[in-house]
Design a protein that fits this description.
The complex is a heterodimer of chains A (227) and B (104). Chain A is an all-alpha fold. Chain A is built from 8 helices and 2 strands, in the order H-H-H-H-E-E-H-H-H-H. A two-stranded antiparallel sheet of chain A has the order 1-2. The chains are: A mainly alpha (227), B mainly alpha (104).
Chain lengths: 227, 104
């Protein structure tokens, strides 16, 4: 029987992939670069991070290979930072077009995290159905990188909300809140081993982002429900 | 429609900075017709891009400022101007933010 924790990772991969598809459909209607980078955030987070995280660790678990378990934890985090880089690209296109190349800083940090992870190969194990990532500097480097990224990206999104009005302000504000939850709360909870709370945070930020994507439909339902 | 309004606004702002050269440069672009200071003809994306290139050669970075101010002004009356596809630094932040949020 697969530990619940692994199943959770497959579930997040699927849900975030659906979010990618929802944004991709919007992109098909309006092919602007910012939407492309937004869907790339979801695509890389799903296919580059959660899916390999789940599948390599699953393989390691069944083959009883500590090396595979460690690789399954370390390597996908490179793509997590690449994915965050795409979220930065969205914000830089709005507020800081001259700093769009900072994308490569996120890629580089992901490379440092993965490189250091390969060097220390943290011991990844399953304790009473939950993942344990051992104790290494990596458990600090990942949430730290994500928190700093969140401050930068959500700060930019809140500023965009401040300079716009109406629905745009609400959508951009929600993206800022969703970013903070995804990169700070969910990341810290999961890396500290609080998987249930981490899962709740994942559900929360994905719901917030999806509510922005399906804004018109949700608003229409609320209006018809009120009347 | 917004392209013509935008081009008109850009030329008026550029006129304050470089005088008649602004209209002279615009009239050199194929498809742009100007009669007594008013822009006529079917103005498209490529005309705006060509004007931005031409102004950049003359004014440098200030060309982007002229475009930003004009887009900001036209946007107050016609929000469809947000759909104009120009380099990011030629479009005001709030219009770029609006473009992204409304496309979602």
């Amino acid at each position: 029987m697969l530990p619940l924790s692994f199943l959770g990772h497959y579930f997040w991969a699927a849900l975030i992939f659906l979010s990618f598809y929802a944004v991709y459909r919007k992109y098909q209607k309006n092919q602007i670069e910012m939407l492309k980078n937004f869907y790339m955030f979801f695509l890389v987070w799903s296919v580059g991070f959660f899916l390999p995280l789940a599948s390599i660790i699953t393989a390691g678990y069944y083959l009883e290979s500590n090396t595979l378990m460690s690789l399954g934890y370390v390597l996908p985090h490179f793509f997590a930072f690449v994915s965050i880089g795409y979220l930065w690209k969205v914000q830089s296109a709005i507020n800081f077009p001259e700093y769009s190349k900072l994308f490569w800083l996120f890629v580089a940090y992901g490379g440092i995290v993965a490189g250091y992870g390969l060097y220390v190969m943290p011991e990844v194990s399953v304790v009473q159905g939950s993942m344990s990532y051992g104790s290494s500097l990596l458990s600090m480097m990942i949430p730290l990188g994500m928190t700093l990224s969140a401050v930068l990206i959500s700060g930019s999104s809140f500023y965009s909300a401040y300079i716009t009005e109406g629905d745009s302000r609400k959508k951009l504000g929600l993206i800022g809140i969703g970013t903070l939850i995804a990169l700070v709360l969910a990341s810290v909870m999961n890396n500290m081993g609080y998987e249930v709370l981490g899962g709740v945070m994942n559900l929360l930020w994905i719901s917030i982002f999806l509510s922005v994507v399906y804004w018109e439909k949700i608003r229409g339902k609320i209006v018809s429900w009120r009347s | 429609m917004e392209n013509k309004k935008l081009l008109q606004s850009i030329l008026e702002k550029a006129d304050d900075m470089i005088g008649d050269v602004a209209y002279g440069q615009a009239s050199k672009i194929e498809g742009v017709e100007i009669e007594e200071g008013k822009v006529t003809g079917d103005i498209g994306q490529r005309h705006l891009e060509a004007l931005l290139d031409s102004f950049e050669d003359i004014m440098g970075e200030a060309a982007y400022g002229v475009f930003r101010e004009s887009i900001r002004e036209v946007y107050k009356e016609d929000s469809t101007v947000k759909n104009v596809d120009l380099p990011n630094k030629a479009v005001p932040k709030e219009v770029r933010a609006e473009k992204f949020a409304s496309a979602l």
